[in-house]
Each structure stands twice: as structure tokens, then as C-alpha cells.
Design a protein that fits this description.
- The chain has 53 residues and is an alpha+beta fold.
- The chain has one domain.
- Helices cover 21% and strands 26% of the residues.
Length: 53
């Protein structure tokens, strides 16, 4: 089961999580669903920690 670190969405089908985004923030691996990834793309590209979203 993979859980989005931003909205809490859970997905058990590994194939569906292929469109999810991963990031490393302060040495911690974070995972974001495709919806959160699209919504916060600019912040991710700017390397802003999720606290700033």
C-alpha cells in the first residue's frame, strides 16, 4: 500500500502508482499521488519543501 504524503490517498495497485512522484525532503523519502503532483508541480520544480505548498 502506497500513501500520498500530502493528501493521504492510498493505492494498493503498484501499477497505478507509476504516475506518482517521489522526492527527498530533509533526507526523508516522500511520495505524492498524481493529483497532488499536478497541483503542486511548480513548487516541486522549485524544490520547495511541501510545508510551503
Amino acid at each position: 500500500m502506497t500513501t500520498c504524503d500530502f493528501c493521504g490517498k492510498q493505492e494498493s495497485d503498484e501499477a497505478k502508482t507509476l504516475t506518482w512522484t517521489t522526492a527527498t525532503e530533509r533526507g526523508r523519502q516522500r511520495v505524492y499521488c498524481d493529483e497532488c503532483s499536478r497541483t503542486h508541480l511548480r513548487a516541486m520544480e522549485g524544490k520547495l519543501d511541501s510545508e510551503w505548498w
